[in-house]
Amino acid sequence: MKSPSDFFMFTPTYAFEKPIFGAQAAFGATILYGKNATSVSATLTGPGGNSLSGSRSDEVVGFGDLYPTASLKWNKDANNFMLYATTGIPVGAYQLNRLSALGLGHWAVDGGIGYTYLNEKAGIEGSVVFGLTYNFINPYTQYQSGTDAHLDWALSPILTDKFHIGAVGYVYNQVTGDSGAGARLGDFKSRVAGIGPQIGFFIPFFDRESYLNLRAYSELDARNRLEGWNAFITFSIEPPGEKVPAVANLR
Predict the structure, then answer these.
(1) Which of 3, 97, 125, 251 has a CA-to-CA distance to 159 between 20 and 30 Å?
(2) H/E element holding 34?
(3) How far is residue 123's CA from residue 146's CA, in Å, rounded to a whole number?
(4) Does a structural domain hold residue 50?
(5) Residues 238, 208: Cα–Cα separation, whole Å
(6) pLDDT per residue over 186-203, tens digit each?
(7) What residues make up the domain containing 67?
(8) What is the mean pLDDT of the chain?
(9) Model confidence, pTM
(10) C-alpha angle with apex 35: 34 to 37, nearest 5 degrees?
(11) What are the residues whose beta carbons fall under 8 Å from the beta carbon of 7, sequence distance 6 or more?
(12) Alpha-carbon distance 222 to 248, whole Å?
């Protein structure tokens, strides 16, 4: 089975001027538009040795689910902390009998914590974000995916005040099994990990500072999940006078 996808994600974000609980508060929403092309082929062999082969493919172009996100960020010297919460609103392209989709077909909520150590004098920046995702039941299939845990990390030597290069990675692991009337294959727990390079630039953008990040992941140790590679190009415009650490730019 193959399912290559290309997405454009736009995330307008409002950062509140006044601190909340001593933290910088922000609220945004990710809007997704892209293409997903899925193909599957299979060969069945009967008791007499006769075989039957077949294939099917499908493609969809359109909008994906909507992901509003709220975050709180604290800073103390080289230490930066973050709390976040997001939800997946199932408005993306999804049909029960299609192979390709740009939406999950069900609601989901996700929350977690993040930490960045940013020491420009020592020339090092490291980030880690941990979160849990709870999936609600899909009303079309009566299938409920289990809760998953995900960990994203990044480590970057700072070569100059405008440029850094390093490594990124993630681990995804389903901690509870799938359920519901549609879960005919049992708990079907899945997992996958990814690792790869990243490069980042701080670039002037009119009277503000912007950040361009390029990163790629090669996946491994997949179980009950597609395995391949993926790449991201992220461009963010930051509030005036503030340099946002890379903890905000992880997956």
Answers:
(1) 251
(2) strand 24-45
(3) 40
(4) no
(5) 7
(6) 999 999 999 999 999 999
(7) 5-40+55-249
(8) 90
(9) 0.87
(10) 160
(11) 32, 33, 34, 35, 64
(12) 26
